[in-house]
């Protein structure tokens, strides 16, 4: 069993790595064999060279996008958790306010981002609002479901022993909702990045405090396609990094007590 688990861990790392190397090698071979010019489709080598050459500008843009993404995710997580707790305590408030959260979710951010940017004078604040709108709903929805999924038998037991509403919330409802909240957080991490990028595209702001989306627009206008792909690589790598970091956080918080994070050996 230990050997099988170790083999699965290695396969989880080596499988995607081998496929990625084969894909990149095939891509580079296709570009060179067909003589495709870099302004049409650059190869991985040209993209890596552009990434190294333009790293100062791209890294500064990356930090701007990361700041917007992190702040939006933090606000979405805090407000989503708080509202979910309020909804769990009051069915009337949940039925009254939850539809408006759904409206925020189903309204395309591309459609309302221009209005937000017009209404809000501060560009950074407008980008933050756009990213928050996209990231907010999964946390609110998942946490609300988790709080409402508490075992009714355990609720009756807590009431039988005279537990207060605060004790029921802190010792029973919140631990039950924790896996749901963390699952929503992993989803919202990527959505916050997408919201920040879309808002940057709509804003189209330049200067030193510009994010990766503006660098993509700038590269497109100048036909610097390798640099455009380099910025796309940074966006993808950032999204993967956010997902892995939040997955690690979820594993560390749940590994000792929840089935979703426990290994097979721990379940015995």
TrEMBL record:
Keywords: Cell membrane, Membrane, Transmembrane, Transmembrane helix, Transport. One of its GO terms (cellular component) is plasma membrane. It is found in: Cell membrane. The chain crosses the membrane at residues 57-85, 97-119, 125-145, 180-203, 228-254. Residues 62-250 form the ABC transmembrane type-1 domain. The keyword 4Fe-4S does not apply. GO terms for biological process: transmembrane transport. It is a multi-pass membrane protein. Belongs to the binding-protein-dependent transport system permease family. This is ABC transporter permease.
């Amino acid at each position: 069993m230990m050997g099988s688990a170790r083999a699965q861990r290695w396969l989880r790392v080596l499988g995607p790595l081998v496929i990625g190397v084969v894909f990149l090698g095939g891509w580079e071979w296709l570009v060179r064999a067909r003589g495709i010019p870099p302004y049409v489709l650059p190869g991985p080598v040209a993209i890596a060279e552009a990434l190294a050459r333009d790293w100062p500008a791209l890294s500064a843009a990356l930090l701007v996008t990361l700041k917007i993404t992190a702040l939006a995710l933090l606000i979405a997580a805090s407000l989503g958790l708080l509202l979910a707790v309020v909804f769990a305590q009051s069915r009337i408030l949940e039925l009254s306010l939850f539809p408006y959260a759904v409206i925020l979710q189903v309204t395309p951010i591309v459609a309302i981002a221009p209005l937000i940017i017009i209404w809000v004078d501060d560009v950074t604040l407008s980008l933050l609002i756009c990213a928050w709108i996209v990231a907010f709903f999964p946390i609110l929805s998942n946490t609300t479901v988790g709080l409402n999924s508490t075992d009714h038998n355990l609720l009756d037991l807590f009431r039988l022993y005279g537990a207060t509403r605060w004790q029921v919330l802190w010792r029973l409802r919140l631990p039950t909702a924790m896996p749901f909240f963390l699952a929503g957080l992993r989803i919202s991490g990527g959505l916050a990045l997408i919201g920040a990028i879309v808002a940057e595209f709509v804003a189209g702001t330049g200067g030193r405090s510009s994010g990766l989306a503006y660098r993509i627009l700038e590269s497109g206008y100048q036909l610097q396609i390798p640099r455009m792909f380099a910025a796309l690589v940074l966006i993808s790598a950032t999204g993967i990094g956010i997902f892995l970091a939040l997955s690690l956080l979820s594993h560390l918080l749940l590994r000792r007590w929840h089935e979703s994070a426990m290994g097979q050996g721990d379940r015995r």
